[in-house]
Structure formats: C-alpha cells, structure tokens
Amino acid sequence: MAHADSELRVTELLASLSLATDLGTGQPMGHGLGTSLLAVAVAREMGCGPEQLRHVQQASLIRFLGCNADAGDTARMAGGNELSLMAAIAPTHMGNAGETLRAIVRTAGAGQPLASRARLVVSALTDNEADARSLSEHCEVGAMLARRLGLDQAVIAALQHAYERWDGGGHPDGLEGDEIPLETRIGIIARDVDLFARANRDVTGMLRERQGKAYDPRIVDVMIGLAQTYREAEWDDVVAAEPEPIDYVDDIDQALAVVADYVDIKSAWTRGHSRQVADLAEDAGKAMGMSHERRRDLRRAALVHDLGRVGVENGIWDKPERLATWQWEKVRLHPYLTERILSRCPALAGLGDVASSHHERLDGSGYHRQTTGEQTTEDAMVLAAADVMAALTADRPHRARFDLEEAARLMHAEVEAGRLEPEAVAAVVSAAGGPPLSARASNPGGLTDREVEVLRLLARGDTNRLIGDELYISPKTVGRHVENIYAKIGVSTRAGAALYAMEHRLLG
User: Fold this and answer.
1) For the chain, what are the domain ranges?
2) What does pTM read for this prediction?
C-alpha cells in the first residue's frame, strides 16, 4: 500500500473533513470548499492579515465538524433521515422562524403514515429545548475536535460559537454583535451565500433581508459585491487560497484519530469502533511480520475506513430490524464515499484503496467493488478481519455483542466459507485476546471505576433510568455521577462526554 505523504497540509486535511461534513449535513461535496473560498475573499476585502485569513479559512472549512454529535436524535425527530431534514433547514437557519417552520413541515417524517408524521412535526416544532441542546452539542464537539487537531484558539472559539447571531438570538451563548468571533460572523454568511447561489436563489435579497438580524451589516456590504462573481469552488482553489507560510500537520496519526472519532460519534452503536479496528489491524500486522511502515499505513487506513458512513442516514445505521433492499444499497455505498473523500487529498489518497476495501470478501461477495482474492491485498484482508471482529464484539441495534470465543467461531466459519483470509483472521483473533481494558492502572481525568461504567453507558445513548437499571443504582445517583463526570472531564453535553470516552479508549 502506498504510504501517506508526511507533508500533509492542514488546509488539505480540513478540506477533506469539509467533504465529509458536507455529506454529514446532507449537502453536495464541495459546499464546504465554496464556503471557505467566499469567506477568505471577504476577509481579504476587509483587510485581514495573514494569520486571521488562516483562521477564517480553517473555521469556515470545518464549520460543521460537530454535526454528527446528535445525528441519532435528529434522525428520530426526522423519522429516520436526519440528512434530509438538515439539508432542508440549512438555508433557513439564519432566517426567520417561519422559514424554518415550513422546512420542518415539508421534511420531518416524509414518507411515513400521516399520523406518525404529524407527531414528528409537532414534536420538532415545539421542543425548543431540544433544538438549543442540539446546537450546543454541535458547538462543543466541534470545538473539542478542533482543539485535538492542534488548531489555534481563534478557530476553536469560532466553532464554539458557530450558531450565534448578530442580533443576539443565536446559540450556544446568545452573543451579540462584535462579541461574536469575526471568523464565525464571516463563515455564517459565506455558508448561506454558497447554499443560495447553488440553488439559483436570490442571494442579494437574502443578504439584505438578514442584514442586521443574523448577519453583521458590514460583512453583508462586502459580500454583496463578491457574491456577484460566485462560482463553485474547486479543491485547488481552496489550497491556493491558504496564506503563507504553509501550515503542516504535526502528527498525522493523531489527526486521523480525530477523523475516526468525528465519524464514530455519529451513532451510539459505533462509538470507538474505528480506533478498535485500528488497534486490532496494527497488532495483527505485527504478528504477521509486517514492517513498521506497513503497520503504520494499515493503522491509518483503519482509522479512516468508515469515513463514508457520514453520508448515510442514522435511520439506517440505527435500525433494529432487517434492512430493506434500498437501505442495503445505501450501506454498500459508504466504502465508495470513503474512497472518494480520501482521493481528493494527495497526501491521504494512498490510504484510500485499503480503507475502502474493508467490506470486500475473497469470494467476490463483498462491496463496493466485489473484488476477489486475486484482486485483494493482504493489508485489505487484515483490515476486513479487524472490522468484523470489532463489530461482532460490540452491541448493535439488531443484536447483542458476542463474546470473544463466539466471535472467533463465527470468523472461522467465514474462513471456511471462503470469504475471509485464514492468516488474517488468526492474527486478528490473537490480537483481540489481549488483556482487557479494565486492567489499566488508573482511569483518565481522575474518573472512578463506577464513573467509567456510567460514562460508557452514557456514550451509548442510554438515559439515566436505563443506566440505573443496568448498574442497579437509582436514576438520581446516576445523575450525580453524570454531574461529577462532566466536571472532571470539562464537558457540558452528552455528546462531549461520548467524544471524551472515545478519545481515551473507554468504550472497549
């Protein structure tokens, strides 16, 4: 497998993430690139220096880095397809309440029986607390991930206040006017201009209508002139817009671990999955005698193997019943989306072939290419085996987890059926039989063992009552544990707690 270039530019990494956040918000890939290019043009026109230009570019590329934080909840509110609901609401969010109301009525529960759809629409329109909580989770998770990427505090602050409005009616803190970071004020407007321009809607009318309400009036005046020459952005345009000096990623492995957590937080059933697959694949590769460089690249491919999952709605991923044929076809699409995202970035493109092969099988029964053994690399075979082991030993919506012995038996059955490679399976099964996570000397953040137990169930999406039933304690006691956990690890939302648990490998 061709290894990733160590000279990964920060702009390229964030541009790749922008393609993923486009998918994760129901937008066409390239929307984030267009937002960034407009934002940088406005910032230049306003006389921003190189450092602030960099902050504007980075913040606008990953404005929606926290968009997966509550995807499961949004999907339930939408009747299964959170991507359609998010796409419908996107152009209205900084408009007036009537615009958003109409978008929700058109979209929530679409395709469901009338009574079910009516309940979903009423719930979506009346649960203002849920809406505020959702946006706060987006902001907290986006800022946490940006911090772990090593981005400057100005970018982190912009994501922390991603939904603020000029008139003070935004989230999460109701900041007003110049209290809102400039990067946020520019990014909000650039995003909406790209949305409206792509849809051939009246950009100037929209800007004037929202001027002084959601939008900074000064930025609107600048944007009106620039919007007249709008064109869809290309990858090379965005890379070329980066101010000197060029900023490079210090630690590619850490950066790709952030990408893994961005993907896995989308569903309570997959949190921590990509890191576990990466650990298993790396350890199996070592047992098979792979070189350090091959193991490194295998681990990197494993961290980003599920990147395309963000382009498939949670109503499919979290469905407890058998998937319909059309739903399976969407599932089969996600490795292709992984490959397409990685292929755009020269420094990560070499990971794409292996990363997107994790559902291929030796007999040609896998997806998305349906390759056979002669066409499948050893690295891809190991990644496929690691992905199966991690999935079998985790709870899923349609079944409980298997213990290691039963998971190994099922994997060996796949070997006998000619679908998984024998040596890869043997190495992965051996790697999975190591010491349990609970053998760690101490817990991160000063958490007690009981708090770790609560945090694991919290990250799974359980309510306080369900956690109490599982641990034989009262919901009130669970609530105290949750308060202590939040205080110790420095978060304020369930999504933030789940991300912390993923980062510190507490979900094994």
Assistant:
1) 31-231, 252-434, 439-503
2) 0.90
